[in-house]
Amino acid sequence: MTLTITPFSGALGAEATGIDLADPVSPEDVAALEAALDEHLVLVVRDQSYSPDQYLAAMRRFGDTMAQHLTEMLMEDHPEIAVLDSSETKVGPDGIFAPVGAREWHTDHTNHKRPPKYTALYAVKLPESGGDTGFANMQRAYEALPADAQADLAARTVVTKIENRNYVSAEAREKYGKPRTHPLVRTHPSTGKKALYFHPGKVRNLEGMEPEESLAFISGLLERTITPDVTYRHKWRPGDLVIWDNRAVLHVAHRDYDPAEGRIMHRVLIEGEIPV
Q1: Which CATH superfamily is domain 4-271 in?
Q2: What is the pTM of this model?
Q3: Of 18, 99, 130, 131, which cross-links 1 as Cys (Cβ 3.0–4.6 Å)?
């Protein structure tokens, strides 16, 4: 098979064909996949079939897997894999019944010192309809802002917190709950492009602002920048592997399905750099 990268029309995303990541993959093909992620930010590989060991081996070609703090969702014998099963969703402390990732546009695990560079989701079981995932190119969103707004945002930093959810254990809160400070505008280490970078649910405050004021600021920024021309909506098929660049992409799981059906995704995170 010959690896082919076919870009989607629009803001971001590409499909990789002619490759099965459960098989041996040449260093040249891995480099081509990473280059495609640098350029297109979201990469779709169809018709994959993995055991947990195969899935981890496939993703370790892109770097070191990292710990996830969703402690109640980790696969027992493979704790680097989080099992995101909508049928297991419980009502949160805010009274909202929402599967993981369905509350707001976000990037993953910003409360870690070295947040993930890539997230991978592998579709194990899907509802009869719905359950798409939206992706937003936050490099393009930043570039679309006026120069004065870019300068203002680039000077800001975000103090993070860990989410207050019942799937995070007290031990994980202790280990991963230390406040971290990251830039609101992040520079990509490979391309040098700048992107808006935040997780609303993990924003404690913007430095120099109170928490309530900070969340209102972030909410307004989302409303201002998440527009159709920077987004891609992925319609899942069984066996899809989707990898995206957390350093430049926000994502959200759409809630247009019955969670009791069991939308099951296996998630792996690849450790990244300290954001700058």
Answers
A1: Clavaminate synthase-like (3.60.130.10)
A2: 0.95
A3: 18
